[in-house]
Amino acid sequence: MRHLTKLVGTGLILLTVTACGGQETMATHPASGNDPAAPSSATTPPSPGAPGKPRLELPPGSTPVPAAKVDAAALPKDFPHQVYTANGGTIINLRAEEGGCQHALGEATEQTAQHVVLDLSETKAQTGQMCTMDLRYPYISVALAAPLGDRTVVLKQSPPR
To answer: Is the full-model pTM beyond 0.90?
Structure first.
């Protein structure tokens, strides 16, 4: 009798795990069903250097901005300051810093004939959310109103928003 109880208990556990595994597949891959309202899995990726979410790799076609044209004096000494252009100079791709549940943000706050000021920040983490204590250095993209040309890129940092 004791072995029968263990056998039935083990069977129930296996049945529960198998059922949960099937539901997880539907939850993580909703586009695999036949629901016409579900988002398509064949979405078009953003064009190289297009503004959007932070990414781990430099977008293809990015050209480095000479170090003499990057003013990173307002950033902490250990903050990355690699800057690239794309799309004819109308997109700036640059290294940013983010950590835990926060994500890097970038915004062109001033654009003159002499310089472009880029404000780097992070999103605020949600209150009560558990987050890892890691640092990441993704590339973020910022659109400019006109090609960068010979203007200087001035980098500054704001508190999380």
So the answer is: no
